[in-house]
């Protein structure tokens, strides 16, 4: 068990409880929270844990600021969409699409890294921003392949859709269909990717990343070729982001700029990293869960609050569900103010 | 200073910062088994000369040759891998990592394990054992688990030397290793340098201001003045020469 998580224990009782709750919650989500809305939420959390953790691999461990992470996510998602759209529905289309997306992502990251990682960090950040914007424009222009702004709806293998019934009986009142299989495909792949990342950060390679983040000048002086390590971690991170994109595309059966490419997703990733805590893989789990839950349930929660405070002056107006973004922003500012090292950093400090 | 024992050589090594020439056509060879003291007033270019040799700065002109190979174009990491060890004048460590981890990272670099993404770093006991042995040598074993940023200046200087020991280099470059250390701490470093000299048959370059240290350790002295090589020879000889009296030693020559 310890070696499964690479001996990277949460190092805090409360954090352990929270992480176990999230893990168990996601593992049994279809049974604990039946209904398509909560399934969507659970799937989104699982995918974003991987996406945010892969971003933190670069930012929190490698000390590299990139704004192209959504693009890498998009490579994986569009890989699935385009392959399924052009080659037809089938598992081989999924495999081809995923592998192509991951490869393109890894190679693109190596090229961007070798061109720009040897210079100043800010330059790399600007390059990634430029390339990601260019890619987004390209996707909306090449509408014959990408579906442009409308995106692509495509068919996935029947075995992964609700139409496929594995058995007629239900387990705990949940029908065992392709949708359930699809969820578990997504869940176990996400969990596997997360554990791989946990291993990477605790490997010799991970220890070099921490050294580079601390003092890149000295890391080079003791014999580590910094630009190569930075390029390598960027590439690994990009490949994993693409894998997350592919999983999400298989789940959604639709890919468009809004779900896989928008700058909004990039901002969400940044917020999740900061809320959870940088430089620890567990931060991604907490950050992604808290953020996606807030995104999905803050509005209904506020409606409840409005109803409860109806007789009072002003408060119902403030709590109007339309103002949810304001409250999310406020939550973010408060969390950064009170937990500058993220929720995980804070919990670890308390022991 | 036998010719075929040469490990490190610089030929016409020069660097200019704008109009200022910080290191000026320095040609010099260093041999195995010889400890060369490099002296010169502050700003003479000693640290810059080191930076050119170990690759932190790129030369404007000239070449650096290590074991017969031109390394002028190589990045610092590759020079280190080829056996060039460097300790810095201004302590330059990994502050939020532990004392142990600082040394372990160097051993890991030397063993070329840095690209291993599958094993657990902590499972490499051979790296850990060696790191612990080195910490013992510099009297830091008790502080192994402490965060470096909490260490005293003297202990940080010791760790700086420990990192170079962990490289097992062919050439050791010490840049004022005892600067700012107390009277009772400095001998730990000086004894270590003497020990390296005895045991490792290494090429040692030592920038040092304290004359008594130079007198006991150095086999040879070179003098840098305004970036240029001003004198080179046996310690007694160099200390007597007019250029040194004028350029650096001043009145201290009376003690020799
Ligand atoms: N990166 C740099 N940019 C500009 N000038 C520098 C730089 N590094 C060193 N110098 C200048 O080079 C000269 C030599 O400095 P240094 O090598 O540190 O001397 P020393 O170590 O002998 O005291 C000084 O005048 C210093 O100001
Ligand atoms: Mg100096």
CATH-defined topology of chain A: ABC transporter involved in vitamin B12 uptake, BtuC
Q: How does CATH name the architecture of chain A?
A: Orthogonal Bundle
What's the quaternary structure here? Answer: heterodimer
Q: In percent, how much strand structure appears in the residues of chain B?
A: 15-25%
Low-confidence stretches of chain B: 250-256
SSE-based structural type of chain A: mainly alpha
Ions and ligands:
adenosine-5'-diphosphate, magnesium ion
Average pLDDT number of chain B: 91
Write a structural description.
- The complex is a heterodimer of chains A (351) and B (256).
- Helices cover 73% and strands 4% of the residues of chain A.
- With 351 residues, chain A is mainly alpha-helical.
- Chain A has one domain (2-350): ABC transporter involved in vitamin B12 uptake, BtuC (Orthogonal Bundle), CATH 1.10.3470.
- In chain A, strand 2 (165-171) and strand 3 form a beta hairpin.
- In chain A, helix 3 (36-61) crosses helix 13 (263-276) and helix 14 (281-308) crosses helix 17 (342-349).
- The two termini of chain A are 22 Å apart.
- Chain B has 2 domains: 1-83 and 169-256, Rossmann fold, CATH 3.40.50.300; 96-168, no CATH class.
- Chain B has helices at 46-54, 76-81, 99-110, 125-137, 153-167, 186-199, 211-217, 235-240, 242-249, and strands spanning 6-17, 20-31, 35-39, 61-66, 69-70, 84-87, 171-175, 203-207, 220-225, 228-233.
- The relative contact order of chain B is 0.17.
- The model of chain B is unreliable at 250-256 (pLDDT under 50).
- With 256 residues, chain B is of the alpha/beta class.
- Chain B has 9 helices and 10 strands.
- Chain B has a 6-stranded mixed sheet, sandwiched between helices. In chain B, strands 2-1-4-5 form a 4-stranded antiparallel sheet, covered by helices on one side.
- The A-B interface holds A 3, 6-7, 199-200, 202-208, 210-211, 214-215, 217-226, 229, 232, 236 and B 54, 56, 75-78, 80-81, 86, 88, 92-97, 101, 104-106, 108-110, 113-122, 124, 163, 167.
- Bound molecules: adenosine-5'-diphosphate (ADP) and magnesium ion (MG).
């Amino acid at each position: 068990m310890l070696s499964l998580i690479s001996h990277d224990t949460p190092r805090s009782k409360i954090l352990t409880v929270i992480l176990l709750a999230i893990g168990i919650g996601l593992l049994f989500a279809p049974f604990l929270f039946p209904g398509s809305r909560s399934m969507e939420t659970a799937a989104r959390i699982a995918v974003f844990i991987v996406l945010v953790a892969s971003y933190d691999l670069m930012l929190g461990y490698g000390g590299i600021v990139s704004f192209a992470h959504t693009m890498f996510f998009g490579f994986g998602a569009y890989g699935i969409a385009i392959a399924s759209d052009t080659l037809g529905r089938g598992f081989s289309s999924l495999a081809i699409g995923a592998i192509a997306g991951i490869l393109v992502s890894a190679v693109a990251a190596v090229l961007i890294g070798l061109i720009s990682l040897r210079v100043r960090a800010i330059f790399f950040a600007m390059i990634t921003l430029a390339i990601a914007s260019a890619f987004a424009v390209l996707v909306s222009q090449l509408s014959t392949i990408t579906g442009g702004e409308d995106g692509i709806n495509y068919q996935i293998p029947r075995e992964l859709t609700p139409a496929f019934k594995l058995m007629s009986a239900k387990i705990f009142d949940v029908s065992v269909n392709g949708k359930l299989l699809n969820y578990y495909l997504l869940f176990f792949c996400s969990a596997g990717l997360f554990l791989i990342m946990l291993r990477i950060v605790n490997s010799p390679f991970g220890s070099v990343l921490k050294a580079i983040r601390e003092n890149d000048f000295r890391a080079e002086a003791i014999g580590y070729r910094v630009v190569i390590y930075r390029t390598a971690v960027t590439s690994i991170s990009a490949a994993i982001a693409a894998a997350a994109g592919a999983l999400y595309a298989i789940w959604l059966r639709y890919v468009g700029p809004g779900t896989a490419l928008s700058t909004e997703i990039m901002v969400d990733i940044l917020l999740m990293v900061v809320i959870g805590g940088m430089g620890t893989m567990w931060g991604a789990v907490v950050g992604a869960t808290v953020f996606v839950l807030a995104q999905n349930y803050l509005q209904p929660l506020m409606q409840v609050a409005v109803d409860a405070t109806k007789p009072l002056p002003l408060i119902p107006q403030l709590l109007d569900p339309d103002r949810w973004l304001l409250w999310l922003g406020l939550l973010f500012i408060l969390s950064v103010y009170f937990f500058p090292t993220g929720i995980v950093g804070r919990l670890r400090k308390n022991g | 200073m036998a010719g075929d024992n040469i490990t490190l050589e610089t030929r016409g090594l020069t660097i200019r910062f704008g109009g200022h020439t910080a290191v000026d056509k320095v040609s010099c060879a260093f041999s195995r088994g010889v400890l060369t003291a490099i002296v010169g007033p502050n700003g003479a270019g000693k640290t810059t000369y080191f930076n050119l040799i170990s690759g932190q700065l790129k030369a404007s002109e000239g070449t650096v040759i290590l074991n017969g190979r031109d390394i002028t174009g190589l990045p610092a990491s590759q020079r280190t891998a080829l056996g060039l060890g460097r300790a810095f004048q201004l302590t330059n460590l990994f502050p939020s990592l532990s004392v142990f981890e600082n040394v372990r990272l160097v051993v890991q670099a030397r063993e070329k394990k840095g690209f291993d993404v599958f094993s657990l770093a902590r499972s490499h006991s051979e790296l850990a054992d060696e790191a612990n042995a080195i910490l013992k040598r510099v009297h830091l074993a008790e502080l192994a688990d402490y965060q470096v940023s909490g260490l005293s200046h003297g202990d940080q200087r010791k760790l700086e030397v420990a990192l170079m020991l962990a490289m097992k280099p062919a050439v050791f470059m010490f840049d004022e290793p005892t600067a700012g250390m107390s009277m009772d701490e400095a001998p730990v470093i000086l004894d270590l340098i003497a020990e390296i000299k005895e045991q490792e048959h290494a090429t040692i370059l030592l920038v040092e201001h304290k004359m008594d240290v130079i007198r006991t350790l150095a086999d040879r002295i070179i003098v840098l003045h305004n970036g240029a090589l001003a004198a080179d020879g046996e310690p007694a000889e160099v200390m007597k020469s007019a250029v040194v009296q004028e350029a650096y030693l001043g009145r201290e020559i009376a003690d020799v």
